[in-house]
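Notes to self, THUMP domain-containing protein:
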Amino acid sequence: MAAVAHYWASCAGGLEFALLKELENLEGTSIIPGIDSYGGVQFRTTSAPQKVAELRSADNVYAFLSHHKKIPVDKESGMAFLGSLAGKIDWEPVMQLHRLWQETEEPDSSSGISDPLLTINGMANVEQTHVTPQRSFRVTGNRICKDMKKHGYTSMDAAAAIGDGMHELLGWPADMRSFNVEVLAWIIDDELLLVLALIYSGNKKKTKNLQNVSNINEPCAEVEDVEGSEQVKSTKKKRPAERPSRADAQLYSRRPYRKALVHTSLKPSTAYGLLQLADVQPGDIVLDPMCGCGTIPLEAINWLGTRVMGLAGDFVDTAVEAANINATGHCDVVRWDASMLPLRTASIDRVICDMPFGNRCGNHKVREVLCPRVVKQVVRVLRPGSGIAVLMAQSKTMKEEIEVNQKAYLNLQKHFYVYMEGLKVDVFVVRRTSEPAPTQQIVRPIKNMAKRKRDGQLTKQAALENLSSENPVQ
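result:
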C-alpha cells in the first residue's frame, strides 16, 4: 500500500476552486479544510509525486509541516513559541517525502530539474554509493499584517527562531545559499503556516527575460534570474555556491512555452484558473487582447492541444516580441490597440484578459479610460448567445460599464476577487447575450498613444489630456 503524503498546494487566493476540482480527480486524495487565510489547499494523497506535479492550478506544492492560530505576537513569547516548533513536528515522513521527490526528478528531463541533495558539494553518485549527503537548510519567513498593526518581531527574527530550533533538534547546519532543505514560515496576523519546499531548481533552460520595457497588460510576479555558480576548488578565488532559484522552483515554471517573459508575466497556474472560469471547450477560439508574453492562450493550447486556437495581441513591442518567441503554431500574435481590435464582429468564442493593474502597470487614470473601451470591443467580437469573457481588472469603472452601459449585450454571471501578490483584483465572468452588437461602437484612439515612456506607460500629461477631452461613447 502506498504511503500517504501530506501536502500544501498554493495558488492565487480566490482561485482555489480550480485546485479543488483537480484534487477531486487525483486518485487517493482527501481534502483537509480549515485553512482559509492563505491561497491554497491542504490535502493528503497516496498518488505518486509525478501525478501531484501535474496539478495545473497550483503555483507550487510543499510538504505540510504545521498550522497554528493565535500565535504569540510579542517578541519574547513569540520567539519562544517559534523556537519550539521543530520539536513538535514528525520529521521522518516529511523527509521521506522530500527524498522521494528528489529521487523521482530526472536531471536530464525536459524540465531540467536536478536533485539538490545529490548534486551539492559534487556528490553526484550518492544514490549509487548509499552515502548519506550532509543536509544544510535555511528558513524563510514572510509576515503580513492584515487586521493588526504590527508584530513584535521581524520576518528574520521568526526565521532565526525556527532555524535555531531545527539546528538544535536535527543538527543540520544552516546555509543561506547552498541549502538543500528549505522551510517556509508564512505568518498572517496571528496565524502561522509552516511548509517544506519540494522543488528547488525548476526550469534550468535559459529563459529570456525582457525587462527593459515593462508590460502594462499582464500584472503579476516579476521573474528574476538569481545569479550564482557552483562552488569550485580554486587556489585563486573562491566563488559562492549556487543558490537554488526561487523563481524557477515552482510547478508552473515547467511549462514548455515559458521561453521569454516580460516585467510582470502572469502565472500559468492563474491563467489555468481563468480558463476554467471561461469554460473553454475544444474547437473554441481563445483571445487575449492584452496578452503580455501570451500566457493565457498558450496555457489553453498547452492544456487542450490543437483542439483550440489561440489569438494574442498587445500594444507594447516588448510584449509582442516575447509572445512571438513563446507562441506555437496554433497561436497567432499581433501588435494592436486593444481598444480598436482588427477582428471581425462575432468571431470569437472566449475572451480572457488580464487587464493592467497595480503600481507597475500604468497610470490608474489611463486605465479607467482604457478598460471600458476594451469591454466595448469584447462585446463586438464575442459570438452572440454563446461567447464568454473573463476579465480581470482593478478599475472602478469596469462594473458600471458591464452592468449599466453594456447591460443589453453582457450578462454578468459572476463577480469576485482574486488576491495576487498582495493586490485585490476584480474578476468578471460575463456571457454575451443574443442581442446583435451595436453598429456604432465607435472608439477613438487615446491621444499620444505612441508617446509611451520606456516602461510602456502613457505620460501623465497625455493621461490628463485624455480625461479632459474624453466624450463618452454610448
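- Confidence is low (pLDDT under 50) at residues 107-132, 212-241, 446-474.
- Residues 364-381 form the longest helix (18 residues).
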